[in-house]
């Protein structure tokens, strides 16, 4: 059975997902697209064998030829489309953020809880990266003992001109927020942001780098170095320190070259190179689950927690103080984790 | 457009390819299967949404619902099915060996040459491994200078009971033969096999390990260590030594674990773990090309060369002497290399 | 010329230094020893070809057969012997701490400044480790741009029964304090200590692990993970993040072993194994300088800064707050750095 | 007690050993030097506190102020000075080769055997390298099972103008000959030399690179890649393949640098950088043993075996054939191995 997918928002990310569904993964096709720029939607549809362009996200979600929806429109519109998908009883894949405010996230949690089943997956693709999955498997296997600290490093070679200092929390560190919750299987209860000497290669208005520190409910401590103009590469570092051992992400280079007095390997150029396989795996797993009428992966709850923690992170960055975080009570629906690492890796 | 694929031979490897086409890669489906064990073919077809079981390979190749064929039956039958595919003007993916004798390979070369276009791809999946592709890109980029030596290591944890000493050349080292030709872009003109002290963990009748040495036409020297009972893992090593630098396969572990006085990472357990992505890429590229009516990847000529070199390797192992190798003249059809490494890796 | 050395305090560390002077490094011999336990001093002297046991540190320092002194007695006695050496105009190597209070350190600074020449070297042996020296050379070479952060990891497999929580700052992190000042060539102006979930393998009275955070005068941020019961090894980690690159300590294993599905190498068992060469280099350089009548390496100022920062660290650990640090004005005498990385390493 | 050493031959290597004895290691001093260029000997002696220049090696060996001799004169003179040292009953450290012909080596074996005690150590410094020692400890510990193959790589960035093709065997691979015997604890019984495509960066008269292959008495196979103009660095590679695991030399870089899209570390520039510590350790152990009146390390037998194997290697390179090697019977004196790896490393 082929899953019919409607894509809301066909900008760069939406187009990349369409390419993935059409040319890379198995079991799905794009049957409808829509966009705030309807001409763009029409042009995209014209290039696909079986897709039509529709006027609105609501229309797309209601279309009988759409089994499941992908939301990659502008963040503030996510709530509307996710709620519409829940109302229609259709599985929806929503790019982060789930919604831009705590209240909007809570409305989604309420709607999905009322529906009585999980319908929403949030696009935290790092949970599908083989490195993070192997880290998780090692932690869950008990080999390193209880995790006590997580050192995360999130390094971008540069950021686009429209990037603002808020985005270092909301767009960059949001991934580390989710990964910390995933790896440590715990909620974040307080946040601090320390700023370092500014990188002189960063735009004048940016705070870069920062050290974003979380306290987990169980006491583990997380420090995230976010460097957004580090030039040399897109470098994602991570190490979990346990009671009697550690696990860390390895370099990802497939070959080692020796020349001119040195040995070495590549560090990825950008997030596409680093996480391309994670995106593919994420989509294949979502399509497989959606085809069975099930949801999988990061849930609305995960999207909600990320939004709340990033709000606190922004407050902490502005105030320089420790900010406490309190989530609402977790509905039963979200209590079973369905993401687990693959077997056979460490 | 979806490519309709017929699969000849649905043993372990055939079933794995069906799984790959159905659940992993994009753009194809299995429409027909056949097997020397017809009941097995029927059972497999019954589990697929759109496939029928056919009596013979010839019938499958002739079926109008089959656009392209995959041959993964017993080696001695490959020639017949590949020739039939060529006769039918259909693209065919043939698992190694292309054929079991030099003469059979030459009949295939003649038929394909007469057809005037490439129709055959041979399943040397290592050419699709990101490690070997990155090695090739470094060599072709000129960074290390002209390649002078290639040290290859092919280590199996163990081999099944039916494995014979001939198979260390024909089934194990055949991959190194192809990789050497691929990386160095050159033909093998002589072979030697040296045997080492026998691994006491190997069955009594096996020669293990061996050092299989090739001389390339351009003078580069290749040494392949084949260890087939090395217990610890399935470990594929490779280093090309150039005039002013080297390039070697990195370890493939996604994480590093520290515990009990040591740091370390996994080495793959078996060829499935090591090359799973190479198989996926191989099939996606073949499907993409076949859908465009083109061939790609390792050609009949590559299959022919591998068979001829392995024949020489067997003679060399038996005699202990250097054995010269002479290929026929290469038809024009095969002179353009179509396999190249991906951009963006090193 | 052979340098005649007197050793004050012949406990475990003093004996190890005697072994080093006698059996490892060149250009010195031990001519006198003393200890609070005079019998121990006599026993040690008896085992040396040219050494006598003296009653007191003062007597040893005044002895004409002592050219230079080593102080490795109990911390609270350091001030007295260092001041006596300065008074005698003799070079003195003092194990950390230089002195146990800010005031005592200031008395030493005053005395040495009054003497008009450097006579004191403090035993911060990490500055002689080839890893830290290579890091320093890379930073100073400008390759990674201005340093913005330093992530340090200080992991002990376990600590002895008499270890108290204060010691995690005063005895463990004191090395990271000095290394941060050395690598970043800057003073520490504020400190914070965050505590993580407690390692259940630590004694009940210990705080373990901690994240000790410094702010440098120039704005760089330093985070030191101190884990003192991590079981697996003695593991010293360090990474400096610059504006356009990073430099980090490599693993120290001389060989990689493959077995049982894994590859890996040793992590040192204890500080002796990890820093044995640093101690040897430290002594050779001190002996060479002292033989020329010069001082070298970490100065009284470095010892003073370490004591003041650790005092602030203790306050920060107790209060949970950020604690500002203010050093007195640096005398001219200490303004020229004499420690530099060796050439030829990176 | 200080060991009084006489140095025969004060060219570049002799001067380096004098520096080592004087400034680095403990327990010895240079009391006499001689050289074919007497003026050079006098100049060197003048720069040392306690040394005199003597006319001949014989005079030096006979001098009562010389306890032990170091021979680093021109190879063809080694026999004479080693025999004189044996005759004088003094310990002698002889740089490789022990002697330039099999017959000369046999005369030394006879003399030392007649003397009834080991007096000769040959300067195969790789046995003192922490990498090779750790490899040896792993092999001897049984962790990887019986060793079956040893892959060695010996890469020089370039060679001086006077270097001849014979030297690739006699001066370069001689170290791999000794290391193979050391690691595998076995004698070499046959040799082959295969030549690869010539490095275009090598002088016209040189054969470069070569693959020098040994068969050990116990059946293990050794392949040595010798590349003498590889430009990028001085790179020493080694991997022993056992029945159920492997051990290989790690890279020696103390730090990893990230910049410009890559991570990496240094490979040593030359043999001094790579083996500086091995030379220091070699001398300290020889001095310690000689001070006790004992010999240690690579013996005359090891020097003899190296010379005989290199002779065979030259024949093999000239003929292109396999050459068998037969050593005389090993005198009892040499049957106890005294070199063992240090404890505490792997």
Structural domains of chain A: how many: 2
Say which CATH homologous superfamily of the largest domain in chain A is assigned. Dihydrodipicolinate Reductase, domain 2
CATH topology of the largest domain in chain A: Dihydrodipicolinate Reductase, domain 2
What count of helical segments of chain A does DSSP give? 9
Structural class of chain A: alpha/beta
**What amount of the residues of chain A lies in strands?**
15-25%
Quaternary status of these chains?
A: homotetramer
**Helix-strand pattern of chain A:** EHEHEHEHEHEHEHEEEEEEEHHE
Helix share, percent of chain A: 25-40%
CATH architecture of the largest domain in chain A: 2-Layer Sandwich
Q: If you average the pLDDT of chain A, what whole number results? A: 95
The biggest beta sheet of chain A reads:
7 strands, mixed
Widest beta sheet: strand line-up of chain A = 12-11-7-10-9-8-15
Q: Work out the number of β strands of chain A.
A: 15
Question: Mind explaining what this structure looks like?
Answer:
The structure is a homotetramer of 346-residue chains. The first copy, chain A, is globular. In chain A, helix 4 links the parallel strand 4 (68-71) and strand 5 (91-94). Chain A has 9 helices and 15 strands. The first copy, chain A, is of the alpha/beta class. The first copy, chain A, has 2 domains: 3-125, Rossmann fold; 126-278 and 302-334, Dihydrodipicolinate Reductase, domain 2 (2-Layer Sandwich), CATH 3.30.360. In chain A, the strands form 3 sheets. A 7-stranded mixed beta sheet of chain A has the order 12-11-7-10-9-8-15, covered by helices on one side. Chain A has helices spanning 12-24, 38-46, 57-62, 78-88, 102-115, 130-140, 165-184, 271-291, 300-319, and strands spanning 3-8, 28-34, 52-53, 68-71, 91-94, 120-122, 147-155, 188-195, 210-216, 221-227, 235-242, 245-249, 255-259, 262-266, 323-324. Residues 338-346 of chain A have low confidence and may be disordered. In chain A, helix 5 (102-115) packs antiparallel against helix 9. At the C-D interface, helix 1, helix 6, strand 12, strand 13 and helix 8 of C face helix 1, helix 6, strand 12, strand 13 and helix 8 of D. Strand 14 of chain B pairs antiparallel with strand 14 of chain C, so a sheet runs across the interface.
